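2024-03-11 09:14:02 INFO receiving multi-entity request
2024-03-11 09:14:02 INFO entity count = two
2024-03-11 09:14:03 INFO echoing inputs for audit
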Amino acid sequence: RKEVEQDPGPFNVPEGATVAFNCTYSNSASQSFFWYRQDCRKEPKLLMSVYSSGNEDGRFTAQLNRASQYISLLIRDSKLSDSATYLCVVPNAGNNRKLIWGLGTSLAVNP
Amino acid sequence: NAGVTQTPKFQVLKTGQSMTLQCAQDMNHNSMYWYRQDPGMGLRLIYYSASEGTTDKGEVPNGYNVSRLNKREFSLRLESAAPSQTSVYFCASSVDSATNEKLFFGSGTQLSVL
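2024-03-11 09:21:47 INFO inference complete, emitting structure
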């Protein structure tokens, strides 16, 4: 299994739809997980941190399944402005100071 | 509030030329990082500085050097640029790398080596 693996998409959804992405990871000892958002040709920005079973922030919910070693990101009531690439990030197994970045899942929300 | 500022935004070099990418943060963060992002490769850590006065190699340090000039500034130097170093470079900072706190990124440098 790759250290961090994401479905690259693209996911094309209409406005108002609910969409979910999964991210699998190989380091079973990881305690913290992150979802970053990256707009085209821009820098990544933190969307959510996940330290236990899950986290919710408005329309966004991140869930952690330790048994199956994956985290998910659920976006409800999608907006056009949600169109971006969503990056899954997990601490490196050998050095917690280093982060392993997934390749990202591309989301396009259409009018 | 500027956050993380990196310069230049764009640079074209010829093979063998040298250059330094500058990065400064005004958030009083302890840790700073240099990443590169290539299509199909994701973000890869080049070097990081856990605190002022320390630097450590990341995943892809070959061909690069760094200097943590002070708490605010962390520069990345390419001594002899190669086409394989064509990439988008991001500087980032965080409160403390040990706790994996939120990373704040600069706006990136698009570097092309011909």
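2024-03-11 09:21:48 INFO post-check: Chain B is about 0% helix and 50% strand.
2024-03-11 09:21:48 INFO post-check: Residues 6 and 23 of chain B are 4 Å apart (CA to CA).
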